[in-house]
Amino acid sequence: MEDGIQTKLLRHEEEEEEEEGDLKGRIWDESKKIWRVALPGVISRVCAFGTIVVTQSFIGHISGLDLAGYALVQTLSVRFVNGILLGMSSATETLCGQAFGAGQHHMMGIYLQRSWIVDLITLTVLLPIFIFATQIFKLLGEDAAVANSGGNISLWFIPFVYNFVFSLTIQMFLQAQLKNMVIAWLSIFQFGIHIPLSLLLVYKLNLGVAGAMIALSLSSWFLVIGEFIYIFGGWCPHSWEGFTVAAFKDLFPVVKLSISSGVMVCLELWYNAILVLLAGYMADAEVAISAFSICLNINAWEFMISLGFLGAACVRVSNELGRGNAKAAKFSIKVLLGTSIAVGLFFFILCLIFRRKLAYLFTNDERVAETVSDLSLLLSFSVLLNSVYPVLSGVAVGAGMQGTVAIANLVCFYVIGIPIGALLGYLTNLQVKGIWIGMIGGVVTQTVALVYMAWATDWDDQVKKASERLNRFYVKSSDNPE
C-alpha cells in the first residue's frame, strides 16, 4: 500500500519536473524568437534616435537659445510628423507580419510599396508644419526668441523627415520576415559616422547649428540607401518581386488601417509634445523647455529599447495569428512582458544612480541641470513604465486592434493625463514637476487599460480576423499565377 503511494508520488514529481522542464524549454525557445526580432530593433532604434540626441547635444553646447529652439521643433513638429508616419507604417507591420505567418511572402513587397505611396503623400501634405514653424510657435504663444530660432532649425529638418517614409516601413517589412539584423548593422554604421561628421561640420568647418543639422540629414539617408541596396540587391527574393502596379490597387483599406494605426501612435507621441508646450508657458520658458525636453529625450532614448520589444510583440503575435495559433500568441505575450519588465527595472535603477549627472551631457547651464535633477526621480518611474505599455501596444498592432487602443489613448492621455499635468503645473508650486506627474498619471491608466484589453481579448476570434484580412488583400504572386 505504502509502496503504491510512494510510486504515485514519485510519478507525480517526475511529471511536475517534466512539465517544468518543458515550460523552461518553451520559455527559452520563445525568448530566442523574441530577441531575434527585439535585439536588432533595439540597436537600430537606439542608434537612430541617438543621432537626434547627439545633434541636440552639439546644438546645446553652441547656444542655449538654439537648444530651446531645437527642443521645440524636435519635440513638437518632428514628433507630430513622426507620430503620424510611424503610426501609419505600423499598418505595414500588421499586414506583413500576418502575410509572413500565412506563407504569403510575395504580398509583403506589395504592402511595402502601398505604404510608401500613402506615407509620401501624407508627409508632403504636412510640410507646411516645418515651413511656417515660426508663425505656428508664436500662434501657440511660445517665447518670440525661441520661436524664431525654432523656425530656422525647422527648415533644416525637412530633408531629414523624408527618410522616415522609407526607414520606418522598410524596418517593419524586414522585421516581419526576421531579416532586420541588417538594419542593426546599418544603424550602428549610421551612428558611427554621425559623431565624426558632426565634429567636422560644426567645429572644423565652423558651420554651427547648420553643420549639426546637415550631419543629421546625411547620416539618416546613409541608412535608407543601405536598406535600398539590401532589398533591391536580391536579399529578399520571396518578399520583393520588384515594383508593381498592384501597389496602387486596394489602397483604401490600407489607408483605413494606416489612419487607425496613425491615430493610435500619434495620440501617444503628441501627448509628450503637448506637455512640452505647457512647459513653454511657464515663467522661465527657455529653462523649462530645455530641462523638460532633456528628460523627455532620455526617456525616449530608453523608450527605443521598449520599441524593440513592441516590434517583437507585433511580429510574434501577427506571425502566430497568421499561422492560426492563438495559444502560441498568448504564451508569447507573457514571455515578452516578463523580459521587458526585467530590462525596465535595470534602467530604473540606472537612472536613480546617475540622476545628478544626466543633464551635463546636453548643457552647461546650471539652472537647466538643477531642473533636470529635480525631475530625475519621476524620470526613473517613467522609464519603468516604458517596459510594460509598449509591449501591449505591440500586441494590439500585431492583432490589428489599433482602433481600440486609439480610444484608450485618447481617454487616458487627454482626459486624464494632460488636465492633471496642467492643474499641478500651474495651480501648485510643482511647476514642470507637476506636468510630469500628470504625464505619469496618463501612462499608468493607459497601461491598466491595455492589460485589461489583452486579458479580455478572444484570441481565437483574432485568428479568424487575421485570415479574413489576408484573404481580402490577397494578390497572386507572379511566381504562382494559378
From TrEMBL:
It is a multi-pass membrane protein. GO terms for cellular component: membrane. It holds the Pfam family MatE. One of its GO terms (biological process) is xenobiotic detoxification by transmembrane export across the plasma membrane. The chain crosses the membrane at residues 116-133, 153-174, 181-203, 209-233, 254-281, 287-315, 335-355, 375-399, 406-428, 434-455. CDD domains: MATE_eukaryotic. InterPro entries: MATE_euk, MATE_fam. It is found in: Membrane. One of its GO terms (molecular function) is xenobiotic transmembrane transporter activity. The keyword Transmembrane helix applies. Keywords: Membrane, Transmembrane, Transmembrane helix. Residues 1-22 are annotated as: Disordered. Its main location: membrane. Belongs to the multi antimicrobial extrusion (MATE) (TC 2.A.66.1) family. NCBIfam families: matE. This is Protein DETOXIFICATION.
